Please model this.
Amino acid sequence: MKIISHRGASAYAPENTLKAFKLAVEMGSCDFEFDVHQTKDGILVVHHDYDLKPTAGKAVKIADLTYAELKKYNVAAHFKRDKMVQHVPRLEEVLDIIEPAADSLNFEVKNDRNVYPGIEEKLLAFLKSKPGLFERAVVSSFDHGTLKRFRELSPRLKLAYLGHGLSTVLLLPAIKKAKAVGAVGFHMALRIAFKLNVKKIKKAGFRVFIYTVNTKKDALRMKEIGVDGIFTNHPDILGKWTLKG
Ligand code: G3P
Ligand code: CA
Model:
C-alpha cells in the first residue's frame, strides 16, 4: 500500500509549502499529492483553496492575483506549530524538491467551473518539459470537465477520478464517469472506504486511493480492505516503511 504525503508533511509544516515538501522528502516520502492553481498571469502554483483565507487569513483569490502579488502573502499565518513565513510556491519550485525522490506525483487540479481556462494545456506542457515526469504523473480533479479536457488533450496521461460528495449509492454512477474519461485511479474519502465499496471499484479495474488517513488504525484498516494507497498528512507516523506489501 502506497503512503502518499498529502500537501507535503502537512501535519508538521504549513500545507503545500516548500517547507512541508522538504520535510516529506526528509521523512522518506516517495509518493506526493498537492493542489494546483493558476495565477492571473498564468503561473501554476500550489495551494489548497481558491483563496488565501484559510492559510494567510485574507479573502483574496488566486485567480485575481499576479504571481508577484500572490507572493506577498504569508501562508503560514494559520499554522500554530510553526510561524516561519512561507509563500505560495510555484509548481516548478515544488517539483525541484520532490521530483528527485518521487515514484509518483499526484497533481490535483483545482478548476471548478473552469475558473482557470487553459490550465490543462499549461500543466500538460509542464509535465512534458522534464524527462520522466509525464510517466510518473497522475492528474486528478473534483471537476469532471477538467478531467475530460485533459483526456481530449492527451490519450496517455494517467487520470484519477476524484469523488465529490460521494456515497455508497452514488458509487456506480461515479465508476461510470471514471471509466468514461479512461481513469486509472479512483480517489475516495475515508468516510465511505468500506470493504465492499473498495471491492466494487477494484473489480471495475481501478486502483483505489483513500484520503485523508491520519491514524495508524485507519491506515491498517485500509491495508486490510485492500486499498492501493492512502493520502496522509503524517507520512512518518503511519510508517511507510512498516506497511509495505
Ligand atoms: O487528492 C485527495 C484529496 O486531497 C482531495 O481533497 O480537499 O484535500 O484536496 P482535498
Ligand atoms: Ca488535494
Notes: The radius of gyration is 17 Å. Residues 2-50+91-242 form a domain with the TIM Barrel fold (CATH 3.20.20.190). The chain has one domain: 2-50+91-242. The pocket of calcium ion (ligand 2) is lined by residues 33, 35, 108 (CB under 6 Å).
